[in-house]
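Standup notes, structure subgroup. Blocker cleared on the 2-acetamido-2-deoxy-beta-D-glucopyranose input:
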Amino acid sequence: MRRLSFWIALAAMADTAFSGPIKINWLGEAPEHHTGTTFGLPWPQGEYRFNDTTFTISGQSKDSEQIPLQSWVTGYWRDGSIKWTGHAIPPLDTIEGEYRVSASASSPSNPSDGPSGLTVVDTADGISVDTGKLTISFPKQGNSVVGSITTSSGKVVGENGKLVLHTQSGVAEDAFARANTSIDYLNFQSNILDVSVSSDNSVRALVTVRGKHQVVDKGDRDDWLPFVLRFYLYANSDSIRLVHTILFDGKPEEDFVTGLGLQFDVPLDGEEFYNRHIRLPGVDGGYLHEAAQGITGLRRDPGEEVRSAQYEGKATPNVSTWDERVSSRLQWIPVWNDYRLSQLSPDGFTLKKRTKPGQAWINIPAGTRSSGLAYLGGATHGGLAVGLRDFWKKYPTGIDISNAGASKGRITLWLYSPEAAPLDLRPYHDGLGLDTYEKQLDALEITYEDYEPGFNTPYGIARTNEIFLQAFDATPATDDLALASKYIDEPPVLVAEPAYIKDTKAAGSYWALPDTSNPKSTTIENHLDFLVRFYQGQVEDHRWYGFLDHGDIMHTYDEDRHTWRYDIGGYAWDNSELSPDLFFWQYFLRTGRADVYRFAEALTRHTGEVDVYHIGDWKGLGTRHGVQHFADSAKQVRITQPQYRKYFYYLSGGDERVGELLEEALDADKTYGILDPRRKVRGDGWTPEPGKPVAFSLGTDWAGLAAGWLIEWERRGPRWQEAKRKLTGTAQGIARLKNGFVTGEGLYAITNGTLLPPPTDPDNQGRVSVSHLSAVFGLPEVVSELLEYWGDDAPDGLESAWLDYCYYYGATREEQNARYGDAFGRLNLVQGHSRLTAYYAKHRNNDTVAERAWKEFYINRDGLTADQPWVSGRVNGSAVLTPVDEAPWISTNEAAQYGLAAIQDLALVGDAVTKSSYGTS
Ligand SMILES: *[C@@H]1O[C@H](CO)[C@@H](O)[C@H](O)[C@H]1NC(C)=O
Ligand SMILES: *[C@@H]1O[C@H](CO)[C@@H](O)[C@H](O)[C@H]1NC(C)=O
Ligand SMILES: *[C@@H]1O[C@H](CO)[C@@H](O)[C@H](O)[C@H]1NC(C)=O
Ligand SMILES: *[C@@H]1O[C@H](CO)[C@@H](O)[C@H](O)[C@H]1NC(C)=O
Ligand SMILES: *[C@@H]1O[C@H](CO)[C@@H](O)[C@H](O)[C@H]1NC(C)=O
Ligand SMILES: *[C@@H]1O[C@H](CO)[C@@H](O)[C@H](O)[C@H]1NC(C)=O
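Run returned:
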């Protein structure tokens, strides 16, 4: 045995050549256009230390440009060596297909000595950043989150950048009720509370602006709707990436958001009306080409050169050279001041313009899905382009261009269009008389909604959007705008290869590369691919888009109606139920597929923001699946589960918004002193009290808290020692329980971060309580990563407690009885749990148990089995509203758990599948 493991260890060392440079490539195709990017890289334990490692990046060809690289550490191994790094590179002139990043053991040079093009000036009044291509200023107080944007030639192309918010105090329930004049309409604008800038700015500067929306003109309203704006500025870049987050802290019955936007003034003084250009985005790089005062199509021709200059966005020849029949009559040609693009549905946008307020709007032929990047500016003065990532997917969105004929034009990007019906965050039903736990539990039996009065609140949910700004010295060719618009939905990202990520173990050791070495594993790979493509298609077929909804998927299908159960209690929005987030991210890690990354990224941006609470008593808790993302009364850590955000956090180079979500999760343990997740089913009479020990589950609850603590420890965040203490204390507590994880519940003391036996078994005699849900919200991933992180330092007995849980969940009644003096009862989700069996088999090197894992994977009551069709069918014609691909045998619970079981079984006991007597190819 000993000899064998020695040789295995040696072979493993030979396999993993960590010394050389790391090959990285673009996610998907190499982009044609690049404005600076940030990316993350993993490193094996024990190789590099923060203070004596220098990172460099190089292209492949021998005349590759020298690329400046800013590097920072996002995660550490237990021994203090580097686990994950973040890196930023500036825009590239020539874009190569792949690059190499080298880590060498030498003290990093002082970042300020670097080849930076960035100048950051931080004063009492504000911060300004000069990228070399533009300068942007950020006042530290007032209403303008951006003072001005100036090009390197000194042209101010944007100023007075503000957030705007419109609300109304009620909604007319029908057209008749619009005669009711008691509805108040309010206007708000950004009010700055805090502005800060990153300290290392050699390639990338990050300016963070925090504030709230402040009422305009009416004094009697508190500031509300907090925002965080993160401006990412790269050396030598003429573009700005802005990550915009809002938090809902209003009352859903009184604070209806009717418009939410970002607005800039664009100076146009001195630019002739006919040289002021409006570029509004259509479909697939299409653009509307207009000037405030059009001189084409007139009865008299100013001259071909004049017309083509205007169309192309160039300054026209001097008006003195035009045909005089036109130049003498310019005053009779209307100036169009205002343009409005409204994407109120994912299927179509409308366009209109008017000469000025008080005059009629004229429709402009429009299209389906606007790319969302617009421009306003002048041929000689230059201008500003503003765009929103996933513009049509986040409907109702819009773009307004106004005052194009004034000395300052204005461009407003609407994250929520004022042309749409108000954002309605009220509950979708009136409570149905569900005023006792008994009735609520009975209702759960029919609609599967876990309702409770007062719990269906959006107070504390958030939404994050990504905005793109670009400064131009002159009106750009529409081809240039089209190129930029192509990348706002899928900004170029660099990634390491799956094999390298796997070998570092920094993203866990429970997944492996796709395995097509034998017919059985090939079938499983095909099934995984099918599931991923199926969900991608369902998003489109069922229009899972919208301001709040985009990114989420649904829980269960309704075969009769050929639709997902969007209107049925606990079957509608999925809210991370049974970990689809883990499935899509792990599937990305092993395949490196761009489509999977983008899908998982949108899911993470949704589930991390909309499905969880960021302020208030429930900060750190998320909401169970439901018809509205916040409707259900089950508020739990299992939905906030930081493990769901972890892969994106590290792969993105430490996305600062997601980092903030990970910090918020650290306070989730406090909520147990206020809200008992098991209040409706608890039989022991226990009630929570802040600061007092709480009984919580060793599965869903501990897994969520432990993941957050481990990430904080890895990041060496400000609270990492507290996190490590709580993690160690609770893990020791679990290890000391007579039945370990099988105990099901423990008493957690928040004051000292320890875990005692549960109230039902204070003397630790050995309670047996196993739930099918315990290990399907990240517990296996978290424990596996945790045990590796700790290595020899893991609390005594933790590994064996986990291996016992892994073995006995799917063991026979007899085995359970023999080990625990009790059987676990009839447990579901056997397929998903086959990965626990596989984990045991791998760690105990036991072929018999490996075979059991494959049996559980293939033969089970509630998983996706090989005899299912594994194809979808088209339903069309009058049977459905719009044609859909349908696979009614799929539920998201099963898809997610099938995916995780398949990925992890192949990684842990893949060799045993060929020998297994179960499964077919
Ligand atoms: C790096 O060195 C500095 C200065 O000696 C020290 O303060 C810092 O803690 C070190 N960082 C790490 C991660 O070791
Ligand atoms: C008018 O609107 C207010 C505010 O939404 C509401 O309270 C009131 O009931 C409405 N009155 C009528 C007659 O609809
Ligand atoms: C156009 O030509 C006139 C007459 O030659 C001249 O006065 C004026 O400055 C020119 N305008 C521009 C913008 O060059
Ligand atoms: C932690 O707190 C609990 C509850 O107050 C207490 O019972 C336990 O003894 C404490 N443990 C340690 C190690 O202080
Ligand atoms: C493997 O596990 C089975 C089932 O628990 C057990 O009977 C057997 O002894 C184990 N084999 C080895 C080699 O440990
Ligand atoms: C429905 O789909 C089937 C199979 O793809 C196709 O043959 C048929 O023409 C479609 N019918 C309609 C009404 O689109």
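Discussed briefly. The CA atoms of residues 52 and 107 lie 4 Å apart.
Next: hand off to the docking folks.
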